[in-house]
């Protein structure tokens, strides 16, 4: 489902009316987080989370952190809930055997870069990963899950949208109040171009007292012939317009754009319609890596994928934190 438009607008009447329900939601989150003692699994645990509902760039961040660990010779495994998949796990993702219907699109994308475990029970997934040789765990999401003790937690936020109208679900996009969530975290990473970073700093900088990293998702130089190419683009991610803007920046001639719901299934009916429309427009169908893993083999060969990677302006705060938690492991 799509986020309501008023979540990302200045607070108004509807947000105010729904705010008592937001207070109840926040109280439920706090109660769940107080439940029981967080478990340790014997290796460092890094949580890549958010306090916003929806996509903020957690998976690209998890991939980038995994690369920083690989550069140190640390065997990191990812643990994720497998949102959108039917398997409860714990199970290690096999790209050759599993589909997005099994384990979710984010797990498949992670598995292309590091061993990845899907588990509805985060503790069981973590234990399975450690038993398989993980020297460090990266949780893709799970900041509001009370199962595991974290050695480092990074809150990822979309710099364009920030914390929306500042209200908790259903009055706004937040899973918990800003000060409460950031009070449990170690650092914040805002993702977006310079103009978005300036907007985020102006709106929310006074509330972010933690170490604050800034970065952007940059397309890989793959040599894709996008300059001047007629394109029909679709994206089922947290903020599809960001992907469409990336294509424009690469010179693509966007004849049509289709913003799908985050994680929306790419049915044969939907893809047949999109391909037919692209044929009629004389355009190439283009999508994101995250969407591409949800395509059936029949359609994947007909759709161009534009990969992006997280580029952080200054890695030193995160690198120092990684050195610290690895030294004490």
TrEMBL record:
Keyword tags: ATP-binding, Kinase, Lipid A biosynthesis, Lipid biosynthesis, Lipid metabolism, Nucleotide-binding, Transferase
GO MF, one example: ATP binding
Pathway it works in: Glycolipid biosynthesis; lipid IV(A) biosynthesis; lipid IV(A) from (3R)-3-hydroxytetradecanoyl-[acyl-carrier-protein] and UDP-N-acetyl-alpha-D-glucosamine: step 6/6
EC number: 2.7.1.130
Superkingdom in the source lineage: Bacteria
SUPFAM superfamilies for the chain: P-loop containing nucleoside triphosphate hydrolases
Protein name according to UniProt: Tetraacyldisaccharide 4'-kinase
Organism: Gymnodinialimonas phycosphaerae
Lineage, opening ranks: Bacteria, Pseudomonadati, Pseudomonadota, Alphaproteobacteria, Rhodobacterales
